[in-house]
Amino acid sequence: MDDPRFMLLYGVLAGILFASFRKAVYDRKMRLAVANVPIVGSSGFFASWWDGFRFIHQAPELIQRGYDLYPEGIFRVARLFRWEYVVCGQKLIKDIAGAPEHVVSFTEGIEESIQAKFTMGRERAENHYHLDVIRTTLTRNLHNCFPDVRDEIICAFDEVLQLQGSEWKSHPVLPTMMAIVARVSNRLFVGLPLCRDKAYLANNVAYTVDVMRSANKITLLPPFLRPIFAPLISSKNKSNTKAVEILGPLIEERLAKEAELGPDWPGRPVKLLDNVYGHEDQRTVLPLTLRILSINMAAIHTSSTAFTQALFDLTTHPEYLLPMREEVEHVVAEEASCESQRVNTNGSLVMARKVIAKEGFRFSDGTVLPCGSYLAAASRPTHYDESKYENAAKFDGFRFARERAEHQANHEANDSQVVFKRQMISTAVDHLPFGTGKHACPGHFFAATELKAMMAHLVLNYDVKPEVEGVRPADIVFSHRLSP
Ligand code: HEM
């Protein structure tokens, strides 16, 4: 303690902490003064801090209250260390969906939402080239690869559920679905035999859970403390090392083949892994491994959550089981899944963004959000809006089928747009499970195909019931996130 070097170090640290704290206070005051957007909750400096705490467990109620007051407008709610601007109504959500990246940043929105630099690493956080690969190559290959997806679903359900004869067996739904989704997704990401490697799959699931949990914890810290404590919270280094150990040899083998035989060598697999290294500086083991790991995270978390919710709905409304069995290969597996996504959004908010243009961002109603504002669309209240969905709070497995039929009856039979209306693959300003606009989830075609095929397999081959009959397990709330 007497060592002057320690004294200096403590002094510097104290200075940095003090300066950062002053900046946080200044930022907060400035936003109170600048943006002319109504506040839901308290506007007082200290009271709004208290609201920030309430947001952690009451975000869905706060956001719904704001939506009820301003269904076509923007309001803000206090979070612990910043304001959240919540955008409602078709017109304004369209504004975000079409805003240019250098004005309203998707990258910065993701960064804040999952604290990507701390939970996934700086390189992954700043470079999003994998989005295009998912959007183009993976999606285009879906049709050809569907037999693989189906094959993997059959094997994965068999092996993960381990059922014999007609016995009933109890499974915790989310972890079970994570195991299955990880396996099915990796059939297209890395292929056989790695997609069945237990250590590889366990690492991907552990990483997925860690990213979400660490992000939740890190957002509870003031921004200036995050760089100090985040490395103690996130286990990304452990997962990265394990992933390199398992995936490394395969990547090296593929790169060596390419170096020897050229990029189009005969028999070259068409897995995501073989296409995700478009950039020269990414063609080594570490960046490629991290990229595959992060795509796994994006796919496993969302798809297993969606399937779990759909299963909860199916077991709470068993009357859908029979019609689904009867028509499973056609539409019904899709209908119920689509409705389940409407009723059970992953959270109250979607399309997290940050305004990064110095002059701020002007919405079409004239509202200007200053540079540095964090905003998102009110997804759950939109899905529960009676003016958009009749009996919106009710799970109605055939809602979308009816809507499409009505729409078709009222329009030209050959109106090709009808085909795309209200399907699981559609994104729209009033149907936001995948977001909407140019940054809508790049994996949504894959997700919809995978989930529908899984649901079809499940209803055809298994009976399901909940642990307590008639009771749907409540979601876990953490800030705006809702998890089954
Ligand atoms: C039911 C399943 C899924 C849901 C509900 C979902 C939803 C979303 C949403 C809401 C976004 C943000 C959109 C925005 O901010 O505008 C997103 C981004 C993203 N999704 Fe999905 N998604 C699903 C499945 C998948 C799958 C299977 C993949 C991969 C094949 C994937 C890859 C991504 C990626 C890479 C991003 C960009 C953000 C990031 O890099 O973390 N998603 N998804």
Automatic annotation (TrEMBL):
Database matches in Gene3D superfamilies: Cytochrome P450 (1.10.630.10)
Binding site for heme: 441
The entry's keywords: Heme, Iron, Membrane, Metal-binding, Monooxygenase, Oxidoreductase, Transmembrane, Transmembrane helix
InterPro entries linked: Cyt_P450, Cyt_P450_CS, Cyt_P450_E_grp-I, Cyt_P450_sf
Transmembrane parts of this sequence: 6-25, 32-50
GO molecular function: heme binding; iron ion binding; monooxygenase activity; oxidoreductase activity, acting on paired donors, with incorporation or reduction of molecular oxygen
Keyword field contains Lipoprotein: no
Cofactor: heme
PROSITE patterns, sorted: CYTOCHROME_P450
Keyword Translocase included in the entry's annotation: no
Family of this protein: Belongs to the cytochrome P450 family.
UniProt name for this protein: Cytochrome P450
Organism: Mycena sanguinolenta
